[in-house]
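Pasting two entries for a bug report.
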Amino acid sequence: MNFLAHIYLSFNDPQLALGNFMADSIRGRDYGHLPQRMQEGILLHRSIDTFTDTHPIPRKSSKRLHSGYSHYSRVIVDIYYDHFLAVHWNRYHPEPLSAFVSEFYALLQEQREWLPAEVRRLMPHMIRDNWLVSYAHLEGIGRVLEGMNRRTGNKSGMQHAIHDLQEHYESFENEFEAFFEELIIFSRSKIELL
């Protein structure tokens, strides 16, 4: 899953959310200097990724894209799923998405000292362009996919994946909804074991 889902799946635990959010920027076991709950957020993130990568529903979504995007199809599905979480936010959280996101941006700024350099570089752009709220709109997802394509040296063709989303919108949406219910249950049970 992508940023929004990882933050949401921390269930309003700020330190857990920070670890869950920054986990992709942490290599191996290079997190012993972080507060315990942030470390647990990193482990939660990794468990969520493993669950997602091995689950048949996201695999089905990914397979629909594989011929056009090869191994990038899983990354694209993560972005699509964040779109559907943003679109249907009020089903999953009582607080409006914009308020939830504003609180998370404030948390990032307050806890900046703990963030890896990569995340500190990314943060001003994320906040300025309000990435997490923009996920709710196709144009926002289009910008994310264009940015991801640039990060691959324009090799992935991911900027075209917005058309695949539009063409198969209902199928991806149904797959997200079925999968996300299972992922919530998985994440809650994993947190209990941390």
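Entry 2 (this is the one that rendered wrong in the viewer):
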Amino acid sequence: MEIPAYAKLNLTFEVLDRRNDGFHQVTTIMQTIALADQLQIESHPELSVECEYPELAGEENLVWKAATELATAGGIAPEAKITVQKRIPVGMGLGGGSSDAAAALLGLNKLWDLGLTAEELSPIAAGLGSDVSFFLWGGTALAQGRGEQISPLPPLPSLAISLVFPDISIPNKTATMYSRLTLANFSDGGVTRQMVQLLTSGQFVRESVAGLVFNAFSEVAAQTYPELVKMCREVVEGGGPVMHLCGAGPALFALPTSEEEHQRIADVLQHYSAGVYLVSTVPPDIAGMMALPADG
């Protein structure tokens, strides 16, 4: 079977407090987008995880842990061959590794005929990582706690998204970015509540959604990646839309009003070593990543 593992954006991302367990209390609205890794899963006498990137093959891939944890929960041996084709850039804040793990849970649940629901898979997903539970559903959802408590929201209509992948990396990025947050970066969740009200009102307004996009990491990212500030400023000065941070960065996204506005981003950033792509939002009926036959 072949399963797509979609990337995500955080339309809002608020950090409320630091928890006693060392994690942070967050409230965030996540959205799957039409950029996806591809997992091929087939029967095999032992567990095997392959990827074109050697550093993401075998036990180093979160997919391996997802398989072993699911097999343990089902009381069976983890027998499968999983091939991961990476299309989501690694370390950009788009949740590729978490999405791969969720796709593995969904696919292996079918391959091994365990019959678990997404709700029953969720505790396993939460143990793998804060974002993994969201990808069991995809679409548009509110995530709370450390990100593992998922409440689906009415799906956004098909919406164009401009993605920018800067030529920037930072070792151990997520932990590093969280460690740089201060009390000044914490909030009370008010922006996310406003976005939830807007999405549940049934009166979608693109401009209103764009006006509420918020990320607690924005200030930290500006200090950590000074080049991002320059890129965002040049895009706006060049007539393009406001750019926002993807997760903990360094990828950026915007909600362009037209293909012409998207093209302005690409034109302005042409002298940077950055990838610029136009994708769209993905609804939950697609992003739920139901396993399909290989010829499907």
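Dev reply: Rendering is fixed now. As a check, the viewer should reflect this: The chain has a mean pLDDT of 91.
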